[in-house]
Structures are given as C-alpha cells and as structure tokens.
Automatic annotation (TrEMBL):
Residues 1-20 are annotated as: Disordered. Residues 72-107 form the Tyrosine specific protein phosphatases domain. InterPro entries: Prot-tyrosine_phosphatase-like (IPR029021), Tyr/Ser_Pase_IphP-type (IPR026893), Tyr_Pase_AS (IPR016130), Tyr_Pase_dom (IPR000387). This is Tyrosine specific protein phosphatases domain-containing protein.
Length: 197
C-alpha cells in the first residue's frame, strides 16, 4: 500500500517491491494531487512545512486533512488490506504520518485499544534517525528535513491522540467516520478477520 502522491512516486521511483512478481502495489495517495511534489496547496515535498501554527494543531490538521481530502483513498486502502490475499505492507515516505493514520484506523477497526494504537504510532520514532538519513539523501525531501531539527519530526503520542480525539468529537470515533464514507459492516468483518488471525 503506497500512500505517497503520484509526483512523489514519479520523483522517487515506485520502490523495490515492484520488481517482485508476487507483490501487487496499490497506490492510494492521501494528498490532493496537483502540486509539483505532493500537495496542491504547499507544492512541496512535505505539506507541513509552515511553522506558524501550534505543533499539535498543525500535525492534527494535516492528519485530519488526509481524511477530508482523500476519504476515497483511505477507504480503498483499508479495503485492500481487508480483502486482498497475503500480507499487507503500508508505507509513505517516512512511514509515520500517512502510514500512522491509516494504521491507526485499521487498528481501530480491529478493536485495538486506544493505548495500543498510540504505542504503535509512537514506535515509529525508534528508527527515526535512520528514516531521516534515508530521506535526506533525496532532493524531494531534503529541504524540508534540513529546515528544522530532527526531533521536530518525531511522532508524539499527543499527535495521534488529538487526531483520534477529533474523530471522536466530530463523528463519534474512527468507525463512524469510515461508515459515513462508505465503509460497511462486511468491510469491518473482513478487516477484523485479517488483523486478528
């Protein structure tokens, strides 16, 4: 499950798994398409470069923006996870923001506790330095990463907690948001079966 934008895929390449015949790559961007790199409004590799807003609100806003801008991609990606054969690998550029949101929703469907979802999200930070070193080697991501300290990119529990809180407040939780966007009880059953077995 490749959550990068079309321009990111074009600039960075489709990735090494495309050469493995047994692997099917499903591309479901979580950004509105049309910008030079990844985001229509920001027109740069990572859309969260503006530093004016409070960090918690800024990150939560981008996370909620994935759902607002691309509910079709969110639901389609979760359906692929639920219905396709084999294991699912979910990734974006760093594997923490877009990937973190999609995995948080999948874990919510599976019935994971909020604490477990937050722990899963925060675990991305364990390899953050290596992830950032890889991304800094790319002109697509380097300018954004070099514009602020590495610690600014760290996934913090409060980011995903606040994002999930927004879904609680506005929709009654992740599942009602999914249902409002075409997710069905059959989808729930299929994804729960895949993630619990």
């Amino acid at each position: 499950m490749d959550l990068r934008s079309g321009p990111e895929v074009s600039l960075e390449g489709p990735g090494p798994l495309t050469s493995v015949p047994e692997v099917t790559v499903h591309h479901h961007t979580l950004f509105a398409e049309g910008g030079r790199h990844t985001d229509v409004d920001a027109d740069r590799a990572l859309p969260w470069q503006e530093r004016d807003a409070d960090d918690d609100l800024r990150v939560t806003g981008f996370y909620y923006g994935y759902l607002r801008e691309r509910p079709d991609s969110v639901v389609s990606a979760l359906r692929v996870m639920a219905l396709d054969d084999g294991a699912a690998i979910v990734h974006c550029a760093a594997g923490k923001d877009r990937t973190g949101v999609l995995c948080a929703l999948a874990l919510s469907v599976a019935g994971a506790t909020r604490e477990a979802i937050v722990e899963d999200y925060v675990a991305t930070g364990e390899r953050l330095e290596r992830v950032l070193a890889r991304l800094r080697a790319s002109a697509t991501y380097r300018d954004d990463l070099d514009s602020r300290p590495a610690d600014d990119h760290r996934p913090r529990a409060r980011y995903i907690e606040q994002f999930l809180g927004v879904l609680d407040d506005r929709f009654g939780g992740p599942l009602p948001w999914l249902e409002a966007n075409g997710w069905t009880e059959a989808d729930n059953a299929a994804l729960r079966s895949r993630l619990r077995d």
